[in-house]
Every structure is written in C-alpha cells, then in structure tokens.
UniProtKB/TrEMBL annotation, chain B:
A Pfam entry, by short name: MacB_PCD
Signal peptide: none
Organism: Eiseniibacteriota bacterium
Protein name (record): ABC transporter permease
TM spans (from-to): 20-43, 256-280, 300-322, 342-370
Lineage: Bacteria, Candidatus Eiseniibacteriota
A GO term from the CC aspect: plasma membrane
Chief location bin: membrane
From TrEMBL, chain C:
Family matches, as InterPro entries: ABC-4/HrtB_transporter, ABC3_permease_C, MacB_PCD
Domain of life assignment: Bacteria
GO annotation, cellular component aspect: plasma membrane
Protein name per Swiss-Prot or TrEMBL: FtsX-like permease family protein
ABC3 transporter permease C-terminal domain boundaries: 258-373
Subcellular location per the Swiss-Prot or TrEMBL entry: Cell membrane
Topology within the bilayer: Multi-pass membrane protein
Organism: Eiseniibacteriota bacterium
Keyword Nucleotide-binding: no
Signal peptide residues on this chain, from the entry's feature table: none
Residue span(s) of domain MacB-like periplasmic core: 18-224
Segments crossing the lipid bilayer: 20-39, 254-277, 298-326, 346-370
Length: 228, 387, 382
C-alpha cells in the first residue's frame, strides 16, 4: 500500500488558497511532508494556521490549489470524484471534533455505515461492527442513539466507525477538543492503542500540548508553513 | 410591543425559493377555487340572464324544457289574447309563439352538437331587449333565411354570414348574426316560425312568451291559463324558467369545485405547516433573542402568524392574477335540461377574486397557527443554546 | 436493499414533516383519481358498448322519431341478425332532481339484443308477461329502496302524466361498466297510451350485425334506403353514438384535466420545498457520509430515493382511498355519473404520477446534496 520505502503520505509543495468575498486568503504555502507507515503524528498550531485544511487534503475531502498530494500510493489530484470516494472508503478513517454521528441511526448503525459500501454480507458486517464496538468498549451501547450517549461515548462510537472498515490511515481533527480531561485522556489512550496494537498510522490535529505528547512526532504549522 | 413587519418581510425574502414555492402552491389552490366558481357562475348567469322577469313563458304542463313541450295553434292564439299582456306601439299584444327543435350540427372541430333551432315571429326580438343584430340583417319571413347567435357562429361550422346551412333537407342562407349578450340565445339559430312548421313537419308550437303589462298581473294570468282544461299548460316567469334549467348543473359544478378546493386546501395547509415549522426551527436562536430582549410571547405568536398569512396572501394574489386570463374564455357544455349545446363564458368577478384571497389568507392562518404557537412557547435559555 | 434502512431512518427523523408531506401527496392523488374517475365514468358507456350493435336514429337529432314501419325494412338488410327498438322516456321520480334513464323498449327483443342486461329467468318471464311491468338496475333499486312488486310512479316530461310501473325484475350488469341506473318498460304500453297521432313512432332502433366488419357497409345501406324519405336516418356503431353523446357534454374532460393538473402541480411545489428544507437541514450529515466514502452518485440516490419513497407512499394512500371510497358507494352525483368507480388504470396512472412527483421533487435536493463540497460544508456548521 505504501510506497517502496514505506512512505504513506507524501506532500510536495502543497498550496491552498481560499476566497472569501473574492479576497484571496492563502492558507497553506508550500507544504512538504512525508509520513511513514505506523507513525503517530500530531499536527499543532494556532487556530487559522491551516492544520484542519492540511488534514482535509490528506483525507481526500478537499483539493489543493497547487502541489502534489500522494497518499497510500494514489496521487489524489488525478482521481475522479467517484474513484476518490471509493479511495476514502478503503483507506481513510476520519474522526471529527464534534463526532458527527448520524442522529437518526443507532450506535450500531452508525458504525455499520462504512461497511455498507463494501460487498460484505450482513453477517460479516455484524461481526465487524461488534468487534469495533468491543475495541472501544461500547458493546453494551449498540442500540443507543447518539443523543442517549455522553460526549466521550459518542467519540468512541465515532472511532469505532473510523476503524471498522480497517482503513490504512486514521485522521483525527481535534478529537478531544470538545471533551473534558478524563474523557480526553481515554480517547488518546484508545488512539495510542490502535497505533500500537493494530499498527494503524494516525494523523491527529490538535492544539492541546497534552494530547500532542502522546504522538511519536509533532509538527507545528504556523501561517501556512510547516515546522518540525 | 409588536415586532415590526419589516422583520417578517425580510425573512420571507431571505428564503426566496421556499417562499415562492409555498406561495405558488397556495396560489394554485386559490386559482382552482376561483376557476370553478367562474365556470359555475358563467354557466348559471348565461341561463339566468336569458329570461326576463317581466316576461312569462307558457309551456305544456309537466314539461321541464321547451323541447318536450307542446302548445297547439289554437291554444297559442287564445293565450295571446289574454288581457294582461303588454301592447306593442301598434296596439298588438307583445307576445310570440315559437317552435324549438334540436338539430345535430358539427362544431368547427368536427364534434357533434345539438343546436337549438328556433322558429320565431316579429315580436320575438322585441320581447328580448338584450338581442340586437351585429352583422347583416334580419331574415325575411317566408324565405329560406336564418340569423345565428354570435356564439353559435363562433363554434358551429358553416355559420358565418353568407354561408348556407342544411336543415330539414333545405339550404338556408345565413343573413345575420345577433348578439344576445352571453345568454342561451347566443347559441341558437333563428328563422321564420311559419315557414319552419311545415318544413320541420311540426304542427304545434313549443312555447308562448309574452310581456306582462304589470308584473303584479302574473298571478291572475297564471291562474286562469293553468285552470283552462283545454290547454293543459303551465305559466312561469321567464327568468325563473331558465334559472331552473341551470340549477342542477351549476350546483354540481359548485359542489365539485368546493369539494376539490376544500380537500386540496388541506394539502396546501399541510405544506404551509411544513414551511412554517422549518422557519420556526431555523430561527430558534432569534426567537430566544427576541424573548430575551423583552418581546412578549403574544407578539412572537402574532409575528409568525402574520408572516404565514402574508406568505399565503401573496400566493392568493398570484392565484387571483392567474385567473384573470381565464375570464371571458368561451366554453360549452350540454344543457342537461334541454340536451342542447350552450356556450358560455368564464366569469371572474371581483367578489370571486376577493373570496380567493380570503381563502388563501385563511389557509395561511391555519397553516401558521401551530408553528407560531410552538415559536411563542420556546423556553428562552434553551432556545439561545441551540445551534 | 441495505440502504433502505437509511432512507427510512431519515423519514422518521421528523415524523410530523413526513406525515404532513405524505398526506398532502395522498390528498393530491385522491383528488386526481376522483377527477379522472369523473372522466372515465362518462366513458363507461363506451366500454360497455358492443361492436356488433348499430344505432339507427333520425338524422336531425334524437328529438325526431322514426316510424315503426322501418322495423320490417331494417330487418331485411343483409348482415342484420337482430333488431330491437325503444323510446327515451325522459321522466323523473317525485322531483325533477331525481334523474335517471327510462326507456320504453320492445320487450320481446330487449334481452336478446342486450345480453349485458342480466336478469333471472323467472323475473324475465314476469316482465314479459305483464303490460305495466318494468325492470330496474341493481344500483337504482338500492338508491330508492325499490323491491320486486313495488309500484314505481314516474312523472313524464315528454309523455305527460304520472306513469305507474310494477317492478318485476332487478337486473345486474354483465360487466362493471354496464349502467345499473336504468328503468326499462314496455314500448307497447307507452304506445297504446298515446293519442292517435303520436302512436307508432320509435326513437332508436338497435341492430345486431353478424360481425363488426359489417358495421360500415350495413350503416351505409340503411342510411341509403331512407335518404330521401321525410325521416332520413343516421346509423352508426353504438360506440360512435355514445362518443357523440359524450362530446356534446363539451370540454368537461379538458376542464377536469386542467383542474387535476393544477392540484398535482400545487402539491408538487409544496413537496419540492419540503424536500429541499429537509436536505438543507442535513448538510453536515451528508458531508460526513461523503467523508466516509459515500460517492456522489450514492448520495444522489439516497436523497432522491427518500423523495420517491415519500411520494409513492402518499400516492398509494391517496389512490387506495379513492378506490375504496367510491367502490361500493353507488355514488352518482345526482344521476350525472352512473358507474362512478375508480378503474385499475386510474390507480396505475395515479401511482405513476406520484412517482413522477417524487422524482421531480427529489431532483433539486438530490443534485444539491451530491454536489456538496465536503470541506466547506463541514466548516460552515462546525
């Protein structure tokens, strides 16, 4: 999946410009980044520094204005939207700050969503969903709706959803940003375990130094420029 | 303290697509409402206006239409010599005896229609002041000439001035076109009754129509004629006679229209409910703010209700405007009382437009009430907290 | 289908909105079926007409009768295998508002020429053997509560006076399209009761022909025989005769179609609005699904499928209700629409219309959702 030398993420001279009321807002200016398989990388920086944008580019839900984004062996700029969606389903597990569970679906159904895109039978899907829920310690909450869960539980369901399809890369955008210290610590421990036990590559955006400490590597993003 | 109307107007214009779609939906209900009223009203007023309250019509007892009536020649003569009949300037009684047959002719589009062919006398036009020639001249008695009503001319094939039309095996020249101001006569063909009787092989008349010298003399005339065993006739006010012919069909049209619009209104109210619930839902925070600023729950309720009524009235206005092009369009149907073709015009009246608008406003009020009440009942703190 | 649960879950999100939308669609389709049935009930006589039956009437209009003497000459026309005749009676029961058809018919030939009028043998025998007997349709019997042996007084408008007939038979239609709102009695009874000068005249002759292919040649031959007589004839197939009668009713079909279209269109606008609101409220969720790898095409189908599902549900409810309400109600709207019943074709047409409504109301929000930019949609609300 990764390239010959084990590089999973490969960014070269990546620029991103937004337009706000026709005024150019440069967000990323010439980012170069290489991430190897199995790493746990934290991306820090003040708000507006472009760290979420960088994460979105890597997760294939946004496109760069200029430059090359190569993730899991695919140059994302060359993929058609439908291929890109299939690529996301296969390789990316996304964890949001606000969990973003679908409120009308149960925890079980939320976790099952990525598996609907596969050819797995419903029995196979059930096995995997229960395994993922077990991994985050929420087997007992399968039938609950998001509004019946606490914030920490919601985020754990979201993590189960992110790993259920066994993606190549886990990306987390401020996964602890909306949680208290105790819950935040639990989530970080969970991410660490996924990295160590399941050998998942994890890319996490955060502005919390405590959270960043758990990572192998910390990069800082400031005014669109990356510093390690 | 009332929330300014500008707030509602700005909100309506902020979600343009939603406003236009909902307003148009409600507008179309108003449109159907006015459309059916205009249809029934046009049909009824065509027949109602056909008769005059100062005229009386005499037909055979038991008949409901001229077509099934028989008045013998001697009976007609005796009816026309009654003392209650008004006099023409030359001193002769203002009364006419007429022959009515249905003749199957083709419409201009090729479909068949039963057209009323009426044999008339010189007094027939005098008795119907609404009728006047607009083209050509009157037929000459004893000649194979006819005049046609302007709606018959417009809808029936070969009815233009100068055309010849085949009736009862003979060719008749069309020498004139008359305007009967949208009444049933506009759909008829008129010729000389004395010539028609032998040609159509009809030894009797169908009706006698007369002008009363005094409206109050109707009762006496009616009593005397209906009591006469040799005639076996019934006497009616001409206007009531024609109005009765339209009653059943007009009631049916109105009934159908009312049924359709009321049921349809329910659907539109459901739509308005959805729109207003969404409006209330997306403005939860605003509502909280307004309440926090000190606006009362009553003024919140009123404000949302006004917005809904405004939205619906806008629709009603659109619907009413859309009915205006329909006004005056001629259509035709069979008069079931006489099995004859009757052409009439859609009649959109100001009062119909007003009812359409009120109808729309009521739909808006009904569709807006529950969402407005929901808005007014918000708890400030919770409302402010929501996204 | 594994995605169905997603669609259903979304519909249950706002139960009130789903309920209101489904019911407004149901109402539109109910009205559509009702109006459409007005048209098809007018046309029931067309469907009930036989291709092997011709109608002979006076060329000018039905108002003019034909001599009874034509019967012998008509029977001799090659291709004619049976003949019956009768007069439109044009009476009413108690009040002119109580309209239904009455025909004075040549009783010996009536049941032979009209096999769709089904009568038990004993009743047919009783009808034949009694001069003042009549038979009535089942729907008419139910409407006025008339039973065998009842005396039915009918006021004549063409033939004056009160006529009393004894109900000796209650017929049923061979198919559902046969009008069961008619009263038949003896032509001989009518004829004998008339004054000398009005006797022996016939309103309509019905001819049975050996094969439908003979319709044109027999009609032509009949009309040629009487062309230059004082009473020329017009002969046409029963279907053409009924079609002519329907076309005299005028633009009813057009008017009802206009009203029906307005209704469906109005509700469609309202539904489009609802669908767009529903999709707009879910912008973030759609972005999340896309992040998970749901393709644009799948999102399009999911959002569109929701609209389609709603519309079909509403359509099935509305059409079903119409079919149920008018099924056994004997509703005739004062005698104007005998045979008021919702045809299966009408239900199918209604469902098709509902599907089209669902498709059209789903297109805008579905395309909007499919085109959604994930990153900006997530940013907007977060």
């Amino acid at each position: 999946m990764a390239s010959e030398n084990g590089t999973l993420i490969h960014l070269r001279d990546v620029h991103k410009v937004y337009y706000r009321d026709r005024i150019e807002v440069p967000v990323l200016q010439g980012i170069n980044l290489d991430v190897h398989e199995g790493e746990f990388l934290a991306l820090m920086g003040p708000s507006g520094s472009g760290k979420s944008t960088l994460l979105n580019l890597i997760a294939g839900i946004d496109a760069p204005t200029k430059g090359e984004v190569r993730v899991a062996g695919e140059s994302l700029g060359t993929l058609k939207p439908s291929r890109l969606a299939a690529w996301r389903a296969r390789h990316i597990g996304f964890i949001f700050q606000l969990y973003n569970l679908i409120p009308v679906l149960t925890a079980y159904q939320n976790v099952e969503l990525p598996l609907l895109l596969t050819r797995l039978s419903s029995r196979e899907r059930k096995k995997r969903v229960l395994f993922a829920l077990g991994l985050v310690g929420l087997e007992g909450r399968a039938k609950h709706f998001p509004r019946q869960l606490s914030g920490g539980e919601e985020q754990r369901v979201a993590i189960a959803r992110a790993i259920v399809a066994d993606p190549t890369l886990l990306v987390a955008d401020e996964p602890t940003g909306d949680l208290d210290a105790k819950n935040a610590a639990e989530i970080l421990t969970l991410l660490k375990r996924l990295n160590e036990e399941l050998k998942k590559t994890v890319l996490m955006v955060t502005h919390d130094p405590h959270a960043a400490e758990r990572a192998h590597l910390i990069y800082h993003l400031d005014k669109g420029v990356l510093q390690s | 303290m009332a929330i300014p109307l500008a707030y509602n107007l700005r909100n309506l214009s902020a979600r343009k697509v939603s406003t236009v779609l909902t307003a148009l939906g409600i507008g179309l209900v108003s449109w159907v409402f006015i459309f059916t009223l205009a249809l029934a009203g046009g049909f009824q007023s065509a027949l109602q206006a056909t008769g005059s309250p100062t005229n009386a019509i005499v037909i055979r007892n038991g008949s409901t239409a001229e077509l099934t009536s028989i008045v013998a020649r001697d009976a007609a003569a005796s009816i026309e010599s009654q003392p209650e009949i008004a006099r023409a300037p030359d001193g002769t009684p203002l009364a006419t005896h007429e022959l009515v047959v249905l003749w199957n002719l083709k419409r201009k589009n090729g479909t068949p229609a039963n057209v009323v062919v009426r044999g008339v006398t010189a007094k027939s036009v005098a008795l119907r002041p609404k009728i006047h020639l607009v083209e050509g001249r009157m037929f000459r008695p004893g000649l194979e000439e006819v005049v046609v009503g302007k709606l018959a001319q417009a809808r029936i094939a070969h009815c233009a001035l100068g055309d010849r039309i085949k009736l009862a095996g003979r060719q008749w020249s069309i020498v004139g076109v008359f305007d009967a101001q949208g009444t049933a006569f506009d759909s008829e063909i008129w010729g000389d009754v004395e010539l028609f009787m032998p040609v159509f092989d009809r030894p009797v008349y169908q009706s006698v129509t007369l002008r009363l010298d005094e409206p109050s003399h109707f009762g006496a005339l009616r009593k005397r004629l209906e009591a006469d065993p040799r005639m076996s006739v019934q006497v009616k006010h001409e206007d009531e006679f024609y109005a009765a012919q339209s009653a059943t069909l007009a009631a049916l049209l109105r009934g159908l229209g009312l049924f359709v619009t009321l049921v349809m209104a329910l659907g539109a109210i459901f739509g308005a409910l959805n729109t207003m619930y969404a409006a209330v839902g997306s403005r939860t925070k605003e509502i909280g703010t307004l309440l926090a600023l000190g606006f009362s729950r009553g003024s919140i309720l009123t404000s949302f209700l006004i917005e809904s009524v405004l939205l619906a009235t806008l629709g009603g206005l659109l619907g009413s405007l859309m009915t205006l092009p329909v006004n005056g369009i001629t259509t035709s149907t069979m008069n079931f009382a006489s099995f004859s073709e009757i052409a009439f015009r859609f009649q959109v009246t100001p009062s119909m437009l007003l009812s359409g608008m009120i109808f729309a406003a009521v739909m808006g009020a009904l569709g807006g009430f529950f969402p407005s009440r929901k808005a007014a009942r918000r708890v400030i703190v919770e409302a402010l907290r929501e996204a | 289908m594994k995605y169905l649960r997603l669609i259903v879950a979304n519909l249950l999100r706002s139960k009130r909105r789903t309920f209101l939308t489904v019911f407004s669609i149901a109402i539109a389709l109910f009205l559509f079926c009702t109006l459409r049935t007005v048209i098809t009930s007018f046309e029931a006589s067309l469907r009930a007409s036989k291709a092997t039956r011709l109608v002979v009437r006076h060329a000018a209009s039905l108002v003019f009768p034909l001599p009874l003497a034509y019967r012998e000459r008509l029977a001799q026309v090659p291709g004619v295998t049976g003949i019956s005749y009768g007069n439109w009676f044009g009476g009413y029961y108690q009040d002119p508002k109580n309209q239904f058809a009455q025909f004075a018919m040549d009783v010996p030939t009536l049941l032979d020429l009209f096999p769709e009028v089904v009568l038990p043998t004993a009743q047919a025998e009783a009808f034949r053997s009694e001069r003042t007997a009549c038979i009535i349709g089942g729907a008419l019997a139910r409407k006025y509560g008339w039973k065998l042996g009842d005396q039915v007084p009918i006021i004549g408008t063409i033939f004056p006076g009160e006529w009393r007939f004894v109900v000796r038979g209650i017929y049923t239609g061979q198919t559902k399209d046969v009008d069961e709102n008619t009263l038949f009695f003896h032509w001989d009874y009518l004829n004998e009761s008339l004054p000398e000068g009005r006797r022996n005249f016939v309103g309509i002759y019905w001819l049975r022909i050996a094969s439908p292919d003979l319709a044109a040649s027999v009609s032509g031959r009949v009309d040629a025989i009487f062309e230059n007589s004082p009473q020329p004839t017009k002969t046409e197939t029963e279907k053409a005769f009924q079609a002519g009668f329907i076309s005299m009713i005028g633009n009813v079909q057009l008017l009802l179609t206009i009203i029906g279209s307005a209704i469906v269109f109005a509700i469609m606008l309202v539904t489009i609005n609802t669908m767009m609101m529903a999709a707009r409220e879910r912008t973030r969720e759609i972005a999340v699904l896309k992040t998970l790898g749901f393709s644009d095409g799948l999102i399009l189908r999911l959002v569109g499928g929701e609209a389609l599902f709603l519309s079909l549900l509403g359509g099935a409810l509305g059409c079903g209700l119409a079919a149920l309400v008018f099924r056994e109600s004997d509703f005739t709207a004062g005698g104007f629409f005998p045979n008021f019943r919702v045809l299966p074709e009408t239900v199918l047409l209604g469902l098709l219309l509902a599907a089209i409504m669902g498709f059209l109301s789903g297109v805008a929000p579905a395309v909007q959702a499919a085109r959604l930019e994930i990153a900006s949609a997530l940013r907007k609300v977060a």
